[in-house]
Design brief:
With about 350 residues, the protein is of the alpha/beta class. About 40% of the residues lie in helices and about 20% in strands. It contains eleven helices and 16 strands. The strands form four sheets. Strands 6-5-4-7-10-15-16 form a seven-stranded mixed sheet, with helices on both faces. Strands 11-8-9-14 form a four-stranded mixed sheet, with helices on one face. The protein has a three-stranded antiparallel sheet with strand order 1-2-3, covered by helices on one side. A hairpin with a 2-residue loop joins strand 12 and strand 13. Helix 1 packs parallel to helix 3 and helix 2 runs antiparallel to helix 5. It is globular and about 65 Å long. The structure holds 5-S-methyl-1-O-phosphono-5-thio-D-ribulose. The site of 5-S-methyl-1-O-phosphono-5-thio-D-ribulose has 17 residues, from helix 2 and strand 9.
Length: about 350
Amino acid sequence: MNTQQTEAPADNVRAVQWTDGRLKILDQRLLPARVDYLVLSTVEEVAAAIRDMAVRGAPAIGIAAAYGAVLGAARAWERQPDTWRREFQRQLPLLLAARPTAVNLRWALDRMQAAAERCQAYPVDALLREATAIHQEDTAANHAMGRIGAEYLRNSRAVLTHCNTGSLATGGFGTALGVIRTAYSQYLIDTVYASETRPWLQGSRLTAWELQQDRIPVTLVADSAAAWLMQSGRVGWVIVGADRIAANGDVANKIGTYAHAVNARHHGLGFMVVAPVSTIDAATADGKAIEIEERKSSELLEYAGIRLAPAEAQAYNPVFDITPGHLVTVLVTEKGAVEAPDAEKIRRLLR
Ligand code: MRU
């Protein structure tokens, strides 16, 4: 296979944009049927967009929250310039509480709070600069991870990915999908298998759509077909993102990731986790300490408002799981790759 770099990998989708003092969000609940945007101007609206998953994906919700903080500061200053800081502080917990598992949300809001503390007077310009920096740094990190991760994919032909980790889930380009974009542009892989990602269907609704926008061949499989796919020899690597990585290398990611990791190990395949260092939570010792979000049972019991399960059926709907670090072949970050990650190697990476 030709391994020469061609043109820059295509990347035409943007989940989060700041325009004319407002936050424009591609409403991911409607994809792929409709491409429609929400234009948000208050903290409450941004918190609701994150909670209801109009915007989703760990880095993207951190970026949306950062712009939400700018909207909060603007409103607070408009109402009461003398006491804007107090009102601003009251608004941040609303954003923080929108979703519990992705640490990027807390990380981005900590940065916004620190920027606010440095402001002597009118805060909005400085806070917008900080939010824009968070956004741009994320996209740059994704390109760096794309280059680092693609190096591992020589001669693998095809990969399996889970959930959506692309431009829809980040500032742009994507984490796992960034590696996939880069590897595809370098002719290292020629197709991508995406597991549908029950119950919210990030794989079939979002990843398939996003890859189609960029003309990267994608083949969907049911989540339950993944072990069989791996056994068939059609994929060389499983590549996923992360919502939070504990200090010992345990990975919280979309429900179903753990099963993919166990299956990859069983079949002797590589299991790659791609995440910026902002996803590493050094204050959380291991996966057991990570809060796993549970969402409403209707996500399982119904689809698009149509009841699938019998009327009295109950459902348990954890939307993330923990993959033990020892199942990870390589953790790819913008600061470099960590093979067989553990507490010591992660400490060294963050130093
Ligand atoms: O519930 P979601 O869609 O927000 O979950 C997203 C994921 O689990 C992604 O894999 C993760 O955020 C990494 S995205 C770069």
